[in-house]
Amino acid sequence: MKLNTAILLEKIDRHLADARLSPEEQLRKRWAWIWILSTLLGVIASIVYFLFFLNLWPITWSGLGFLVGYIVALILYTRVRRFDLVINITFSFFTIIVFLAMLQTGGLSNSLGLVFVGINCAMGSVLAGNLRWTIAMFVLYCSTIIALGIAEPYLHTPDYITAEVNTRAFVFLAVWINACILFLVVLFMKDKSRYEKAEAEKLKKLDEAKTLLYTNVSHEFRTPLTIINGIAEQMTERPGNQNKNEAQKIKIQSNILLRLIKQMLDISKIQAKGIQLNEIHGNIGKYIQYITSQFESLAETNRVELKIQSIDENIFTDYDPEKLMEVLANLLSNAIKFTKPGGSISVSVSEKRTDDGPCVLILVTDTGCGIPEKELPHIFDRFYRVRENDSQTPGTGLGLAVTHELVELMKGKITVSSDPGKGSIFTVSLPIKKTASIAEDDGFSNIKSVDEQLVTFIHKESAVEKLQNYQPDKPLLLIVEDNEDVLEYLVSVLESNYQLELALNGKQGLEKAISHIPDLILTDVMMPEMDGFEMIDHLKSDIRTDHIPVIVLTARGDFDSKISGLEIGADHYLVKPFNKQELVLKLHNLLEIRRKMQLKLGVAQVVPDGKQEYRQELKFMGKLNALLEKNIENEDFGVPDICLAFNMSRPQLYRKFKALTNTSVGKYVRSYRLQKAKQLLASEGINVTEAAFATGFKNLSHFSAVFHEEFGCSPSEVNKNKT
Ligand code: ADP
User: Fold this and answer.
1) Burial class (CB in 10 A: 0-12, 13-18, 19+), 89
2) Ligand 1 atom 7: the closest Cα is on which residue?
3) Which CATH class for the 205-265 domain?
4) pTM for this predicted structure
5) Level-2 CATH architecture, domain 270-457
6) Cα(403) to centroid(ligand 1), Å
């Protein structure tokens, strides 16, 4: 009868189940229990053997001691949580019994093999998984052995333990202990491989479920997108339509989504073995040349040279034109995408003999940014994008995964070698076969559309290029966003209410914020060169820009980044996809708060208490007031001195001051002097001349005129009315 270990183990697990234990502890509990049982069987066998066959009743007592220990341990084992303690205490007890029994037999050499029983105890402790107890158990066992070694000359071996009896008992115990260890190891290994198989199965199922989800979701997206695409197309074709541009944009964006969906569906179909090859027999060199030539205009638009280096036009083999086109299109569009203007791409096709037979070698070489070595093993994974490139170029990380699957479907191989900063070489090798039927046109008519491959590249007039919106009466908003599409959308939403300034990364954003001192900043977080948080950090620690309210716009909706954004000083946080109204409202509210603050700060106040806790804006005003206070008697003190003191240019100071107070610095300085003069005039023992001189007015009639203009009364009236 075949022992079904899986069922047996399941039964044992059910018997030992304890909800308080972790799966790992449960596993250890199982193996320690099996060890207890297998050694128990040995103990019962040895009691019988020693008693009936060797007639050694005097040492059978130790076996009985073991029996008592086992019974207590087995009762406790399923009841208490600390099964490891049960094992360790029981086995310590056994070690001591064995020690006493060996003292009785006359030491190690006449131990009847009981010396092995100590090893059994230590093994049990290892399985229980409590390291401290295991060490203690080994120390105890070794101590008993050392003690027995020292005591041996003084011990007496009873007459009934003859050399023959000793040998037989030794053999019996040695065989038993080894059998127990072997049994355990075999079971353990079987269990481990079963565990690994179950894990692999679980992962496979998870992967299948994911693929199914992608497939279903993609299918659901495809229908509405196709309808959107169709309507957009109709709109672009309708004569006299004013919104042709917008319709064209909808069409491009929905095409990009449709392409992504196609790639997702392709990948799941290939994996589910649902895609068949439709091969024809033809001239593959000519065909590749044709496909490559389709990308020339795209390369030209991107100012990249596309060369057909060497194409052997005499290679005839079986190939699936559509799938080969997909492979080439992915490789070529990537090469164009990741090569800077001025770079070059070359394609070559040749025949090569390999150990597996003749094959076609297709090489796509570019002088682009290259791929770091550590990323190379992953680039054929689904959704994998090289970190350094991902925020600068559009893409999803699916193209190469599909390419890889398609090449494998064609029984070919794809490899890549790359030198970061210098370029990459993608090599596809396909076996040469001659079984399909010959196609007259080498498969050209099978190609549905190369255009579809190009949608992500359609040259768009960038938002930065397009922006011409000098509207000085509107608030200046700086948008910092690296994604051209999002930028374009933001411009379309905000251009009617704001004068816009655009930056494509944090570094550029910071430079523009310092040079233009905008009224508001709207920024993305993940950007090349300098991310949004770093930019905000710089802005908020620079006196020229620390007052500018910032709204962070990001796809990272997690709490931590929200907190760090707000901690650094962002005023609001919006998670993409954001609601247009919410964005407009938040920007408007921030300006409203500014306006209220301007009303308060615009009136010059001689702040008496310099220790007051100021917010960033008040801090600036406090500093300015202190500066004015110090130089109040100095008639010549003015805007140039303030610029110097704050290390700002005149336009920077002007914009910052205007944002804080909605008034000019010059006016504020004058107003400050007059407030101070009014205060002095109201105090005892100061006349008009003294008050004017003390506040930097050397010309009395000018003082009287501006005083009147500011307060609607003359300085002497204030001076007279004091109480
Ligand atoms: P996508 O281009 O949509 O991001 P792919 O699967 O086609 O996805 O490519 C995965 C990643 O491999 C890309 O994001 C890019 O970082 C890198 N890569 C692919 N081709 C090239 C290339 N010719 N030069 C540099 N990097 C490349």
Assistant:
1) middle
2) 399
3) mainly alpha
4) 0.48
5) 2-Layer Sandwich (3.30)
6) 11
